[in-house]
Amino acid sequence: MSDETTQRKAIIFDRDGTLIVDKVYLNDPDAIEYLPGVFEALRTLRDAGFIFFVATNQSGVPRGLVDIKNLNEIHRRIRAAFSEHGVDILEFYYAPFLTEDPHILRKPNPGMLLQAATEYKIDLGASWMIGDRMTDVEAGHRAGTRTIYLENETYKEKEVYLPAEGTFKTVAQAVPFIIEQDRLRARVFA
Ligand SMILES: [Mg+2]
After folding, report:
1. What is the pTM of this model?
2. What is the pLDDT of residues 20-76, one digit of tens each?
3. Residue 162 belongs to domain with CATH number
């Protein structure tokens, strides 16, 4: 039996190409550009009972392309922008490791998601990971969430990972699917 007071359902978002435009090693807080429909999408998901996190790989940090102060300011501004729309992003997790580094925190590994689950008592089986890379999808699967893949023209990836439960072009387009799947799951596990 689930206990909603201690086990919450979450959506963990990738950042670039998912909530904001992928500027590749974004280091300028003034260059943040939100993707269409994200504020409304998260409001709808909030009303369906989800809490929100961001989990972003930041290999630009060890490469010297992204400054930690700027990264924190970027995340502060994104949180404030969503907050203005009534949406609380509880935590921004980032993995400052090189692409080839198999660190547990770097997607496709599930470390950031597991950290969120521990810190916020998340029911991962009732939660979702959403991203525009198959490494996001894989991180979700390794953590035990369900997943949404945002198909895009930037990344044409080899199918080395299990497919996502749902594939859409934007977060907004995925919302009805997530809510319907959440309803079906609640019927079984409530
Ligand atoms: Mg991305």
Report:
1. 0.95
2. 999 999 999 999 999 999 999 999 999 999 999 999 999 999 999 999 999 999 999
3. 3.40.50.1000
What are the beta bridge partners of residue 16?
A: 20
Measured in Å, residue 183 CA sits from the centre of ligand 1 at 27
**Which residues are annotated as catalytic?**
14, 16
Q: Assess if residue 1 is contained within a domain.
A: no
Tell me which residue range forms the domain holding 75.
Answer: 10-189
Cβ neighbours of residue 87 under 8 Å, at least 6 residues apart? 39, 42, 43, 46, 52
Ligand 1 centroid–CA 22 distance in Å is 7
In a domain, 128, yes or no: yes
* Cα 133 to ligand 1 centroid, rounded to whole Å: 6
Cβ-count burial of 40 within 10 angstroms (0-12 exposed, 13-18 middle, 19+ buried)?
Answer: middle
Q: What is the DSSP letter of 8?
A: B
Q: Is residue 179 part of a domain?
A: yes
